[in-house]
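Let us begin with a simple case.
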Amino acid sequence: MYTIDLAYVGRGLHEELVAYIADQEDLYAAEGVHVALRDGVAWDDERLRHCATIGLGRALLSRLSNGIPWVALTVNTDRPLFWFLARPDVTSLADLAGRRLAVHAPHTAPGCFTRIVLRRAGLDPDRDIHTIVRPPGDYSSDLRRLNDGSIDAAVVGSTMAPEAVAAEHGWQMAAWFGDHFQIPTVGVAVDPTYIDPNDPAVQALVRAHRRALRIIHDDPDTTMRHMRTFLSRHTDDEIRAHYETYIAPYFTTDGQADLAVGDAAIKAVADELGVPVNVTVAEFYQTGTATA
C-alpha cells in the first residue's frame, strides 16, 4: 500500500469535507493508499510543501508571492465557503462602510479573498472599514462579539451554517463570498520539488477524492451524515438546507478546474497582493493530468 501525508490548512466543510468522506468511506483504502491527515493550519510554507495539501488558495498565494511551484491536481469547488455574518442593521456589503469587521489577515487566502470581495462592492478595506484581524478558528469568539455589539460583522467560515446562526440570533448574512468571487480553492496540490504529481500515492489520493466528490452528488444522505460531524450544533433540517444551498450545487463532480474561472482568479489575487502573475492557469491547475 502506498502512503502519503495530506495537510489541511483551514477548518470546516470547505477544507475538510471531501477528505473526511474519503477517509470515513474507506476510499483511500480502496485506492491502495494510506493517507495520514495532518493539521497544517499553523505550519509555515516550507514545512507544508513536504506534504500534499488541501488548501489551493494558500498554495496559489505562496506560488505568486514566493515562487513555490505548487500545482493543483484536483479541485472541490470554486465557490469559497466564507460569509459576512452581521448584526441586524448590516444588510449588505455597502452597509459595512465605517463599521467594525472581524477578518482574517490580508496575507492569508481568506483574508485576500475578503479584500477582493470588498473592493468589488466599492469599499476600500484599508480606509472604509475598521478591520479587526484575528486568526481563523471556530469563530465562536466572533459570535460572542457580535452578540455583545463590540463588532458589527465578521467573516466566518464553514465551521457553522451561517444562515442558521443568523436566523437564531436575528442577525444578517450580509453576503456569501461565492456570489462575488470565484476561485478553485480546495482540492489536492503538491510541490513537485518534493512530491512528484505522477507518484502512484498522489494519483491514488486524487482518485479517492474524486470518488468522494461523486458521493457528495449521488448520495446526499451519506454526505449529510458526515456533515453532522462538522455542524453538530445544527438540526438535520439546517444541515440539509446548507447542503442543498452551498454544497450540492457548487462542488465539482470530477475534480476538474474551470480554467476561465481560474485565470480570472489568479489575476485578481496577484493584483490584490501587488505581485506579478508568475504562473499561467494551465501551469497551476493541472487537474486534467491525473489518472482516472
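The second case is a distinct protein. As before, the sequence precedes its C-alpha cells.
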Amino acid sequence: MGDVGSPLGFYILKRDELNQLYVCETARGTGVAAKLLSDAEARMFNDDVEKAWLACAIGNDRAARFYERYGWCRAGSVVIDVATPVGVMPLEVWRYEKSKPGADT
C-alpha cells in the first residue's frame, strides 16, 4: 500500500499465517494497518482458511490491542523458529487466532 518505492505498509501471508504486517511510522494511526489487516483476512478466508493465525512479540501491547480490536484472540504463548544470519533461533511469542466468519472452529 502506498506509492511505488515508498510503501506505507505491507503484509506477507504463508497459507493460514499472517506472517508479516508492517506499517511505516508516518502512516501509523491513519487506518493503513486496518486496511491491510482486512485485506489479509479476506485473502486467507477466500482461500478456504478456516482459522488464521499470527505471532505477536510478547510485550508488544500496542500491536496486541490492535489485533484484539479487530477480533483476533490470543490463544496463548508458543515458540516459533526464526531464521537469523547465524541460524534458526527459537522465539516465544503470543499466538493470535481468528476464525473464518461462519466457521465452526
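The radius of gyration is 14 Å. The chain has a mean pLDDT of 93.
Keep these points in mind for the review questions at the end of the chapter.
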